Amino acid sequence: MEIDRQLLREMYYHMRRIRRFEETAEELYKRGTVVGLLHLYIGEEAVATGVCLALRDDDYITSTHRGHGHLLAKGGDPKRLLAELCGRVGGYCRGKGGSMHAADLSLGILGANGVVGGGFGIATGAALSAKMRRSGQVVACFFGDGAANQGLFMEVLNMAAIWKLPVIYVCENNGFGQYTRYEEATVTDQPIGARAAAFGLPTAQVDGNDVIAVYQAAIQAVQSARAGEGPSFIEARTYRLRGHHMGDVGFARRYRTKEELEEHLKQEPVGRFHRWLLEQQLLTEAEIEELEARIETELQEAIEFVNSSPVPDVSEIMEHIYA
Amino acid sequence: MPEMREITIVEALREALAEEMSRDPTVFLMGEDIGRANGVFNVTAGLQDEFGKERVIDTPISEAGFTGMGVGAALTGMRPVIEILFCDFMTLAMDQIVNQAAKLHYMTGGQAKVPLVIRTLMGAGRGAAAQHSQSLHAWVAHIPGLKVVMPSTPYDAKGLLKSAIRDDNPVVFFEDKMSYQVKGLVPVGEYTIPLGVADVKRVGGDVTFIATSSMVQVALAAAEMLAQEGISAEVVDPRTLKPLDKETILESVKKTGRVVIIDEGYLSYGVTAEIAAIIADEAFDYLDAPVKRLGAMDVPVPMVPVLEQATVPNAEQLVTTARSLFGRRY
Ligand SMILES: Cc1ncc(C[n+]2csc(CCOP(=O)(O)OP(=O)(O)O)c2C)c(N)n1
Questions:
Q1: What is the dihedral of CA A206, A211, A214, A216, to 10 degrees?
Q2: CATH of the domain at B273
Q3: This prediction's pTM
Q4: B55 interaction partners in chain A (CB closer than 8 Å)
Q5: pLDDT-based confidence at A115, cuts 50/70/90?
Q6: pLDDT tens figures, B67-77
Q7: Do B147 and B20 fall into the same domain?
Q8: CATH class of A5-305
Q9: What is the domain range of residue B266?
Q10: Which residue of B has its CA nearest to A312?
């Protein structure tokens, strides 16, 4: 597959922007500016980027509690996302949703979800809706390896398969579900994709730290969904470089060793892609620096936006219960 | 006066579905055996023939899955009406109803809209035992973000279902399985009934019965019996629990000074308790007697009819309860 330099530039821009956004959020959380629960996507940037860049602007995604990467890669605004994390009126949800419910319906981002596996039904229903409206839209449903163990997954796989719905189930296998290791909670004799394959879905297993591999698998799945051939499944193997959430510090939960973490740090996707781009002489140092400077400016603006955006007035409490 | 004819609740519901599907191409139906098989209770009979398999979708037995899909379709421009056969099976889809459908509008700061209708059956009376006979409307009425509708007549069933389908919020629509064949006058032409407006089903001056769904017929029968004794009972049917028409309820109670609330949900922590609390709070000074409540006994619904029937309030109990409110006179 031909991948042009403009696309590579976009890939790097998105991966790096997600990484720096998460680092910024982490920092602001420690200062008490970000409030609520915070699950960072650091280490998994290539998955959201590879999948979302394979989508059209009017396509849909459903996201997870670890969803900042999905939203940003789908074109979300870091200002409004950061403001949401900080509970400000300028945030995507006026502070009422926070990190776990950030959504931008106008960009097809149907929402992060606080319930593990909570996006399965919504994504599959959006695919049904797209098919009924003959809109040509497809849906990417992001979920973790932990979520794959929810029974709902089997229900929607079956319905997506019998009705040939345009949905792509993207399993981000980051090695952990909260403080439990993937291989301790999930059958590993067969990959997770075997479950989807049992319903006849085409499945792919890719290195989730390789943005190009993810992108290529996604392009294929999107093409077949768009062509009316039905759902697909992608497992992207990656690794969660931070704790489950901000409260998961050090090695107190005993689910991994320092050595394991260090081993994986060497494979982290943003640095890896950066090195590869330079090695292959696909982008120059100067081009990369320019992208990084642009990202820093955006994040600076996001922080200023947060500072200028007030917390909601208590009088807003009862607003938005009913449409 | 519009032209009227007598039809059953089943027929009224079917007309509402067919009319809304004709009016709005985004309305579609999804549920188990609703299409080719015509719906287990025939509510959707003929609709698949009329509107096609794409708009009257027979689903697998996957309540959580297709309820969640209803949410997703509603978020993206459609108006799904899904059927969960017995409300006992709402339990399988509770996350989709309570955590997803009910909360998305709020959690997204008003961005998302979920115009989803969930039709479901309630009520005992068929010897169907503990997993097919409950009335779990209080469970969903407890949740901000959901609307809850409980019609008792063909006229109400049709007008309220049409409004539910046009509403931009998730609505849980409870149909009492023993009332399906209840007949009543329904206009020939188009009409809707707004959600949140109670209906006085019988006017009276001595005591108010606030009755929902299946219990409206019970209350009307009791009122008839009491009339023989010279007690005039008013029957108020809230028709929707959320929104609840407090004004009509309070107005009636203020007029009569005596009230019995009757509902087929479990007595404890249920709808009757909520309405009683509102009356105690807002009409205390008008009361001449304690607020009384009748509900289903707090027990899993037994199969054998002799036990089953004892768990549900009946007209005789309501008459006795009403009489007790006139202690000194009777
Ligand atoms: C239904 C449900 N059960 C439990 C939780 C608590 N919880 C939040 S995230 C999480 C782990 C999810 O693992 P996975 O799906 O692999 O996603 P990851 O956190 O690895 O991105 C758990 C158990 C929850 N939010 N929802």
A1: -120
A2: 3.40.50.920
A3: 0.96
A4: 132
A5: very high
A6: 999 999 999 99
A7: yes
A8: alpha beta
A9: 199-323
A10: B109
